[in-house]
Specification:
This protein has 416 residues and is of the alpha+beta class. Helix content is 35%, strand content 22%. It is built from 12 helices and 16 strands. Strands 1, 2, 3, 4, 5, 6, 14, 15 and 16 form a 9-stranded mixed β-sheet that branches. α1 (11-22) crosses α12 (393-411). The longest helix is centred in the last third of the chain and has 22 residues, at 295-316. Bound molecules: zinc ion. Zinc ion binds next to loops. Zinc ion binds at residues 86, 97-98, 131, 193, 361.
């Protein structure tokens, strides 16, 4: 780090760039609406590329529309150190989710340019296509194709609600590049992002050193009892599927509290049949979502969930079908990338804490195929996916300085 330790980004230029992109596809309440592969998305990409070309970066676009803006190093045989995130937003999105990670990477590279710093390995700024998954589901599709989690033909074939194909929309806005997605090397990936949760703000820390992402399991639960008259059926002997479900829901919440502070659990959807006020509910279907950063803990939660549901179901004389529909293993970020972020944070003297990402990010896909870590900064009230989303300029600047110095460390590693 030595000779570059006084290097700092321009926080005002970073803020102005975030505001300028935010004007493209403006929301009605101060945020942005720049859905993937719309004209607004194209305009945001065009402006980003113009900025990159102004500082001499070369642009490569792959056939999922991912953009790589490259600044050459001294040894261009080395795989590039890549930083970035996404420029698309939710329909009622904020100005910071994703955009911050792209423009923090741009500001870091602008700072290298201004100071005539050439790194050993080349550095690249990446924009991943369609992180949000709002217009074309699922989310994080293009980083997923890069990481080999999705087939490209499948990604191209996904349609929006008007029946337009993702591949056709990529071509229409001029962003289907020639490079096969996933064929360009990534030496390491760093993604700066607003936290999208309340922890940093509550703990009064400026930087989150992100060590991984949570694992999650999703279930569909069906409880079968018996429909029966609400007036003439005595309380004893009822087979009430909703009462049994209520006990299960309370248990699901208690389960996460037992594995505090890392575990979370949610029942978010429920269908009651026949849903009539004077009939005892004979069937209830609901969802369960449990998450934890540790695979063993997740397995233990799963075991307890099954055992406790069986006990509750027995007590109420109902039957249960518990179907696991998704099992996503936790991800752990790369120790060297985490160390680079932690060292940069300490060098700069920012208050910080280690944390695990609650939300999914492109970095959580890329970490399967390249060394990766993330940097979190606080956002007001932990609010995101909301036009009111906001962050302090000083925190954004701090996260960007951490990104710059972590990039320098990784890009100059072979110098040491
Ligand atoms: Zn995001």
């Amino acid at each position: 780090m030595g000779e570059f330790q006084n290097l700092r980004v321009d926080g005002q230029r970073l803020w102005d760039s975030i505001m300028a992109i935010g004007e493209i596809g403006p929301g009605e309440h101060g945020g942005s609406c720049r859905l993937a592969l719309t004209d607004a998305d194209r305009d945001g990409r065009d402006l980003f590329i113009r900025w990159c070309e102004e500082i001499g970066c070369s642009i490569t676009i792959d056939d999922m529309g991912n953009i790589f803006a490259r600044r050459e190093g001294r040894n261009n045989e080395l795989a590039p150190i890549v930083a970035g995130s996404h420029l698309d937003t939710q329909p009622h999105g904020g100005k910071f989710d994703g955009i911050y990670g792209v423009l923090a990477a741009l500001e870091a590279v602008r700072t290298l340019h201004d100071n005539n710093v050439t790194t050993q390995a080349p550095v690249e700024i990446v924009v991943w296509t369609n992180e949000e998954g709002s217009r074309f589901a699922p989310a994080m599709i293009s980083s997923g194709v890069y990481a080999g989690l999705f087939e490209k033909d499948y990604a191209w074939s996904i349609t929006d609600s008007d029946g337009k194909r993702q591949g056709d929309e990529l071509k229409r806005i001029g962003y289907m590049g020639e490079l096969p997605c996933g064929s360009n090397p990534i030496g390491a990936l760093l993604e700066a992002h607003i936290e999208q949760g309340p922890i940093l703000e509550a703990d009064n820390h400026q930087i989150g050193v992100v060590i991984g992402g949570q694992g999650q399991r999703w279930y569909d639960v069906t409880i079968k009892g018996q429909d029966s008259h609400a007036g003439s059926t005595p309380m004893r002997g009822r087979r009430d599927a909703l009462v049994a479900s209520a006990e299960i829901i309370t248990m699901v919440q208690a389960l996460a509290l037992e594995f505090a502070p890392q575990a979370v659990s949610t029942v978010g959807e429920m269908v009651v049949k026949p849903n009539s006020r004077n009939t005892i509910p004979g069937e209830v279907c609901f969802t369960v979502d449990i998450r934890n950063p540790e695979e063993q803990v997740l397995a233990k939660m799963n075991e307890q969930l099954n055992a406790r549901i069986a006990a509750i179901v027995g007590k109420h004389g109902v039957e249960c079908e518990l179907k696991e529909i998704w099992d996503k293993a936790p991800v752990k970020f790369d120790p060297d990338c985490i160390a680079a972020v932690a060292a940069a944070t300490n060098l700069l003297g920012y208050s910080n804490q280690q944390m695990v990402s609650g939300a999914g990010h492109d970095a959580c896909q890329i970490c399967l195929v390249a060394p990766t870590s993330m940097i979190f900064v606080p956002c007001a009230g932990g609010l995101s996916h909301n036009e009111q989303e906001s962050a302090e300029a000083a925190d954004l600047e701090a996260g960007c300085n951490v990104l710059l110095h972590a990039m320098l460390t990784l890009a100059n590693k072979s110098d040491a």
